[in-house]
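Homework help board

Subject: predicted structure for assignment chain

Our instructor gave us this sequence and asked us to write out the predicted structure in token form, then describe one feature. I got the tokens but I'm not sure how to describe them. Can anyone check?
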Amino acid sequence: MIWLMLLACSVASRVEKADADLRAGNLASAEERYRAVLDRSPEQVDALYGLGWVYHLDGDPGRAREYFKRCVRVAAEDLRCIRGLGSVAMSEGNSVQARSYYDQALVLEPNDARVLSSLGLLLLSQGDEEGALPHLLRAGQLEPERGEHSYNVAEAYFRKGQHQEALDAIDAGLAKGATELRFVGLMLELRALVLVRMTSGRVDPLACESTAPPVLSWLAAADADLDRAEAIGVALPNLPAARRQVHRRRSKVTEKCPQ
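My token output:
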């Protein structure tokens, strides 16, 4: 009995550390820890689910699906496993199947923040920002500490052209001290893009002294956001493109209003 209790504690500790690695974007370490759990307990649901997300985030939908399916076989009513399958389907462009999985999960738990978030992201991927926002906002209300939700809400506002609302959502998310480093980086990256978009059309060549400095200040803030995002040390594939947008906008400002 004592041996079983020690084993359970060891498994729980490994899963907790693996989950922390996954949230931080340390996929290799998370994979190693989840696999160590499954070596001892092949049907451990948390590890099956976590490993599915490791492969999903690493761009390997086939292996991700395999582990989410194993997760469903072990725990048919664990909505996390169903959500995982929906996320894989969405990443492959199968929106009908993804919606089916999310609807199944919401029948089990109508107020699950992560399923609501996934459904919102599905609608966002289909260009339905108006339909996506209520789900994303509700997810943020249910789990206010998660940076992922703040980022998703900001992305929806950004796509709608509501730039100040996007900026407010990002700033609120960053102020909460989100621990998911990947989403902290993504929020900073998106913040820079929002600032670039907000500078559009604000420089008047006939009033350079009053219109150019504020725009250049915003662009300097965008550069600072990208520096902070890069310093986090998490892979952000779109960051170089974001930097180019900032530099192009600055070039256009200095062309209209030479310093």
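Reply (TA_rk): Your tokens look well-formed. For the description, you could write something like this. The mean pLDDT is 92. That's the kind of observation they're looking for.
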